[in-house]
């Protein structure tokens, strides 16, 4: 699927690469919410990942149909679809669970406005994973990610099966956007304009560390303000353009498949797979922020090593100062929901 070296994996892979890598080890992956706007194209992209042996597609509506459709694609993996009352069967033997279940935003809404609906969806799915596949790695896409990831962690903790190395918030779309938007400004390929994006996944909690990119550090002044704003609020652009029909689905499916592939490569023992993801983290725990996205090395157990954020400019310090209090609130809200 995606390029096999870590450096290239974090740059923008071409569609052709989705079909090209050869498999080493293989794994059963479940998509919970497979009938949705993200779930369907994500399932298709995962069907094309040679590291996926078996695809288990679950939704409260439509998953058997999506599975029948995707199963005709001529790649090696088998595909099974499960109806609303078959969640436990869908999770049997699964090593990686990707969760895009839940409602998306409409114009005028924040991601936090989705909390009331999505918190219980994510909690109930995490409860089932803890019961049926307690060793699985859980990749949370459902918003608000800053709260749904702590919800998954606390739910598993309650069940006595929480391992912080196996719970991830998927923030890859922010990284994908940052590379794409920067590439457009400096007239380079997104493969060369990778940006480490840290913090969380909503507005001011999204902190692109442009100074750490050779292209990014050339952007200054008003241009920098505009680029940072575009990376932080890229989701709003799509919500507005879709005009009530939802939020990013296709670029998110791409980002979700990209992160899943990175994790699978790490699980299979590939060295040097490093990408930003929102995990339980010591980096700002002394400020009460115990989940944070930064570069994480992925390995056979999931999170192998959490990298520090590295050197940042005064400008980026200010972005971090705005990020942390909001992130803290979002995390506490998620934890409180489960408590
Ligand atoms: P969608 O409405 O098109 O699809 C959601 C799917 O979830 C539906 O098929 C629905 O039936 C299913 N679902 C609802 N409750 C369920 C349950 N209990 N179990 C299983 N499936 C259930 O929405 P979408 O556009 O695919 O977005 C899904 C979520 O992803 C939203 O919360 C959205 O905000 C989020 N999202 C996150 C990112 C990110 O970067 N992390 C990016 C885009 C969207
Ligand atoms: C995104 O960044 O596109 C997603 O989080 C969806 C949204 O609500 O913006």
Automatic annotation (TrEMBL):
One GO biological process term: malate metabolic process
Superkingdom per UniProt: Eukaryota
Positions annotated to bind substrate: 105, 111, 143, 177
Catalytic reactions on record: (S)-malate + NAD(+) = oxaloacetate + NADH + H(+)
Residue ranges of domain Lactate/malate dehydrogenase C-terminal in the record: 171-338
GO MF, one annotated term: L-malate dehydrogenase (NAD+) activity
Active site (record annotation): 201
Enzyme class: oxidoreductase
Keyword presence, Secreted: no
Alphabetical keyword list: NAD, Oxidoreductase, Tricarboxylic acid cycle
InterPro entries assigned to the protein according to its UniProt record, in alphabetical order: L-lactate/malate_DH (IPR001557), Lactate/malate_DH_C (IPR022383), Lactate/malate_DH_N (IPR001236), Lactate_DH/Glyco_Ohase_4_C (IPR015955), Malate_DH_AS (IPR001252), Malate_DH_type1 (IPR010097), NAD(P)-bd_dom_sf (IPR036291)
Residue ranges occupied by any Lactate/malate dehydrogenase N-terminal domain in the UniProt entry: 27-169
One Pfam family this sequence matches: Ldh_1_C
A GO term from the CC aspect: mitochondrion
Entry's EC annotation: 1.1.1.37
Bilayer-spanning residue ranges: none
Binding of NAD(+), residues: 33-39, 59, 118, 141-143, 252
NCBIfam families, per the entry: MDH_euk_gproteo
Similarity section: Belongs to the LDH/MDH superfamily. MDH type 1 family.
Record text on subunit structure and interactions: Homodimer.
The protein, known as: Malate dehydrogenase
Species in which this protein is naturally found: Panaeolus cyanescens
């Amino acid at each position: 699927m995606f390029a096999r070296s870590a450096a290239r994996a974090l740059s923008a892979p071409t569609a052709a690469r989705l079909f090209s890598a050869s498999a080493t080890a293989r794994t059963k992956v479940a998509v919970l919410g497979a009938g949705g706007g993200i779930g369907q194209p994500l399932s298709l992209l995962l069907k094309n990942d040679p590291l996926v042996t078996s695809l288990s597609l679950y939704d409260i509506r439509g998953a058997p149909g999506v599975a029948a459709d995707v199963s005709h694609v001529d790649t090696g993996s088998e595909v099974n679809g499960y109806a609303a009352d078959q969640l436990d069967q869908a999770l049997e033997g699964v090593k990686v669970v990707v969760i895009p279940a839940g409602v998306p935003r409409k114009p005028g809404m924040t991601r936090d406005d989705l909390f009331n609906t999505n918190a219980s969806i994510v909690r109930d799915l995490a409860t089932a994973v803890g019961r049926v596949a307690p060793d699985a790695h859980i990749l949370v896409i459902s918003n608000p990610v800053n709260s749904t990831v702590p919800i998954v962690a606390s739910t598993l903790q309650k069940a006595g099966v929480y391992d912080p190395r196996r719970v991830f918030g998927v923030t890859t779309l922010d990284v994908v956007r940052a590379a794409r938007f920067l590439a457009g400004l400096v007239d380079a390929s997104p493969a060369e304009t990778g940006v480490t994006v840290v913090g969380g996944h909503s507005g001011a909690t999204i902190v692109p560390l442009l100074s750490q990119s050779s292209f990014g550090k050339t952007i200054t002044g008003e241009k920098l303000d505009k680029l940072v704003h575009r990376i932080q609020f890229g989701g709003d652009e799509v919500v507005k353009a879709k005009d009530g029909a939802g939020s990013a689905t296709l670029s998110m499916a791409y980002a979700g498949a990209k992160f899943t592939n990175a994790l699978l490569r790490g699980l299979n023992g590939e060295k040097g797979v490093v990408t930003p993801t929102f995990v339980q983290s010591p980096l700002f725990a002394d400020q009460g922020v115990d989940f944070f996205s930064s570069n994480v090395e992925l390995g056979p157990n999931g999170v192998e090593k959490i990298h520090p954020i590295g050197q940042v400019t005064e400008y980026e310090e200010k972005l971090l100062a705005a990020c942390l209090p909001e992130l803290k609130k979002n995390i506490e809200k998620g934890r409180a929901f489960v408590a």
